[in-house]
């Protein structure tokens, strides 16, 4: 059973979430563009699968 929080918890949004893949399994190939929240790259995951890599801007990590 999950604990109910009175307010959002930074630890609940941590970069070590169960669904997140290891950063070293990604290879950036081509820069596609940038926007308000960061950059987007064409990349490869595990040397087998083409993916889009969304990279948040540094300011997005601070609240």
Automatic annotation (TrEMBL):
GO terms for molecular function: ATP binding. The keyword Transferase does not apply. It comes from Callorhinchus milii (Ghost shark). ATP binds at residue 54. This is Protein kinase domain-containing protein. Coiled coil: none annotated. Keywords: ATP-binding, Nucleotide-binding. InterPro entries: Kinase-like_dom_sf, Protein_kinase_ATP_BS.
